[in-house]
Amino acid sequence: MSETQEHTPSECDSLLDYVYGELSGDALEQFKLHLLTCEKCKRELAGLERVRTAVKQAMPQVEPPADKMSQLLHAAAQQKPKRGKVLMFARRVVSHPAYMAAAVVVIVGGAMAYNFRAGRVMMPAAEPELHEAVATKMPVAATPPVEKTQTAVAGGELPAGAPEGKIEGKMAEPAREIAKPMESFASHSAAEPKIVLKTDAPAEYGVTRSSRKNVPGAAFDGRPAVADKGYLEKGKDSSLRAQFDDNRNNDGVISRGDELDLEGGAGGGKRRHASGGGLARTEAEKNVISGAGVAMKPAPVVAAAPPPPAPEPQPAKPQPAKKMAKAEEERTADRDALAQNQGRVQNHPSIAQNPSARAQAAAAPAPASVAPPAAPAPATAAMQQPSQQKEMPSNEAPALAADNKARSKQNGEDPAALKKRMLAYADNGDCEQARKLYEQIDKQFPSYLTSADRVNYSRCSGVNRGVQTAEQQQPDQENSSNSKATVAKSGKKAKKAAPNTSNSTPPASSAPAEKAADKAAY
Amino acid sequence: MLAYRDGDVRAFEVLVTRHRKPVFNFILRFVHDPAQAEDVLQDTFMRVIKSAESYERQAKFTTWLYTIARNLCVDASRRGKHRKAASLDAPVGDDDGVALIEMVSDGKQGTDRQVIDRELRARMQKAIAALPDEQREIFILREMADLQFNEIAKVVGCPENTVKSRMRYALEKLREALEEYRDLAQAAQ
């Protein structure tokens, strides 16, 4: 009993491990010490050893039959695992999470690197640039050849053999926008200009992104820019964009510089290069839309090729009936406005009472409101403007005569009779009656009197003044011994009066005044 | 086993040669039928062949092998309860006949000694067969397969202390059976 009390149960429990040899090291030594002192463990150990000996005797190892052995080996050879080193590595990688994560990183990274090198994958920020680059390259390769275009004479045509094409898509709208100011201006010109925009370029080839940025003829909205004077004269590519913007701000109005260019085109000497839709940036592709009568068509890009000789001016094509009718209406309206303005000026009280001012008003040019607009005036208009102004009186003479006839019917007097009477009074020296008749004619028939009539009237009034001055100076001659000095004074006075009148009267009327002064001096 | 998994067929032959005999004795003591034990042994190694591709060295091969064998033995034992299986302890023929286990072991001893040993083995075999299944399998794995208690615990799927406890109970019963035989043997001598 004392032995069991001396040893703890945990030490006695190691007996089984000791019997089967599973104790080692300190545990084995400690149990051996315990076994020396513990009688119970000694007895159990002896009993277990006897049982094990009996079991070994009672249960000998039995040899399995050998025939099964060959079958197992044959089956193992038939069904041997077909795993190589690659599969083994893959299996090990898959079995471990860390290996799996590393493998995923390597595979995904490798795939991205491969695709990036192959150009299949782009960073999101660089994607638009790629598209832009692709868009820049592709249309240039697909751009149809652009021919150098000749600037035609106003209302002219393309030279023979030049290819013609339709304006479609984006090109059609800019053509209309250009045509609007041209049509409005064409109504003021005698010859009807024609705008011909011709291109062989399809609409989809018209504008690329890069060419839109750089070439004014190919705007972002498809509107061709109207080149201004600086571009036409210098042809600088660097200022194309700014010029385009300026033209946009001016609503596409063609500047005066284009007139000069058109004059050269009208003369058949100048040539300008134009392209349809701003297809490229070469010299031959620069868009020059120089106003009415410009033929615009794509030309092949042959920058080194010399320009062909200037063709002969082509006869104007017949204008559409609608357009011509519109121009005729506007022309008639302008004539009426001009006649009314002239009548209004000469009937003004301040001018009517002052003959010299009336003469100045008659000699003054037509009001600006009637004149054709200066800013959009193309070369044809610039050429025809002087002739138009010169022809204007001759064109308006029948209308004025009809107007005078109508007024004479209303007043019941004949201006010719009044004029004859006025001239008769003037010849007889009755300048007072002549002046009255002159004012009556000028008031009732403002445009009837000519400059020659005004000269006669001025001569009469000047003679009258000279006669009056001589009559006033006769007492001085009687009193004075030096009549020449008096004559000289009177002559100086007359000369002094002449500049004053010349300042307020037109040159046509100042010369008779000087003659009258000379007469008075004699 | 790793060599065989990598495709070396000769490695499997080494495995079979090394573990064939203890596994067969374990199966024989478990199912008590040599023919059935051979079939179970065949199935065990076939299972090893099929499972070689997915084998991972998470434990000793011996533990894995005896786990397969034990599961197959359990299945065979369940099937054997529904059929009349020959027992090692059952006498062949009539009651006077020689036990099956005596035919397996061929002792060359004296007549008396042979009789005593024969009786002893018979009793021990009866005592082992009389052990509960959980104690018997642990006793066989410990005595026949020479597995350590921790390995046995993995094979049977129970704690190591439970294994030791069951082993202690089994040894106690066998010791009692052996004490009775010793009294008989002493009386016979």
Structure summary:
The complex is a heterodimer of chains A (522) and B (189). Chain A is mainly alpha-helical and 522 residues long.
Task: Explain what the structure shows.
The complex is a heterodimer of chains A (522) and B (189). Chain A is rod-shaped and about 185 Å long. Chain A contains 23 helices and two strands. Chain A is mainly alpha-helical and 522 residues long. The N terminus of chain A is likely disordered. Chain B is mainly alpha-helical. Chain B has nine helices and no strands. In chain B, helix 2 runs antiparallel to helix 3, helix 6 packs antiparallel against helix 9 and helix 8 packs across helix 9. The termini of chain B are far apart. Classes of the chains: A mainly alpha (522), B mainly alpha (189). At the A-B interface, helix 5 and helix 6 of A face helix 2, helix 3, helix 6 and helix 9 of B.
Any descriptors?
heterodimer; A: 522 residues; mainly alpha; two-stranded parallel ribbon; 23 helices; 2 strands; 62% helix; disordered N terminus; B: 189 residues; 9 helices; 72% helix; elongated
The main sheet of chain A comes to: 2 strands, parallel
Q: Approximately how much beta-strand content do the residues of chain B carry? A: under 5%
Interface with most residues: A-B, 38 and 51 residues
Order of helices and strands of chain A: HHHHHHHHHHEHHHHEHHHHHHHHH
Shape of chain A: rod-shaped
Number of helices of chain A: 23
Helix percent of chain B reads over 70%
The end-to-end distance of chain B, rounded to whole angstroms, is 52 Å
β-strand percent of chain A reads under 5%
Cross-sheet strand order for the largest sheet of chain A: 1-2
Category by helix and strand content of chain A: mainly alpha
Give the N-to-C terminal Cα separation of chain A. 186 Å
Q: Which secondary-structure class do the elements of chain B indicate?
A: mainly alpha
Average of per-residue pLDDT values of chain B: 77
Which quaternary structure do these chains form? heterodimer
Q: Would you list the SSEs of chain B in sequence order as H and E?
A: HHHHHHHHH
